[in-house]
Design brief:
Keywords: Cell inner membrane, Cell membrane, Ion channel, Ion transport, Membrane, Transmembrane, Transmembrane helix, Transport. Helices cover 72% and strands 3% of the residues. With 142 residues, the protein is an all-alpha fold.
Length: 142
């Protein structure tokens, strides 16, 4: 079993996946910081407090009279749609930022590809070169 585990770990795909997960975690921190530290303060300034619907709920019981979600849950059943709305809006903002980042990276990649000079064509194989010479000599005799 230990040898099988060593073979599994030694495969290239496993190492690629591990690197991808680590880079993904670091990228998640970058995107979270962009959203929390750069985008949401601007959105909050525009909307007067941001998108926090976490205390929005519908009471499913006549006993629920509390103004906050946490207190309302203690009083009875509630339909807490506000947290979902907040998460959905945050997801849409995050997806838009990731889209813009990917678009920027693709633009940079395309400019790098355009700057690359095409490699010179490889010389033809020896037999093709000799046949071309024979053809040219036969054309000159005719």
């Amino acid at each position: 079993m230990l040898n099988e585990f060593k073979e599994f770990i030694a495969r290239g795909n496993v190492m690629d996946l591990a690197v991808g997960v680590i880079i993904g975690a670091a990228f998640t921190k970058i995107v979270t910081s962009v959203v929390d530290d750069l985008v949401m303060p601007v959105v909050g300034a525009i909307t007067g407090g941001g998108f926090d619907f976490s205390n929005y709920f519908l009471p499913l019981s006549a006993n629920v009279t509390a103004p906050t979600l946490a207190a309302a849950r203690q009083q009875g059943a509630v339909f807490a749609y506000g947290s979902f709305v907040t998460v959905l809006i945050n997801f849409l903002i995050l997806a838009w930022i990731i889209f813009l980042l990917v678009k920027g990276v693709n633009r940079i990649r395309a400019s790098v590809e355009r700057e690359k000079a095409p490699e010179p064509a490889a010389p033809p194989p020896e037999d093709v070169r000799l046949l071309s010479e024979i053809r040219d000599i036969l054309k000159q005799r005719a």
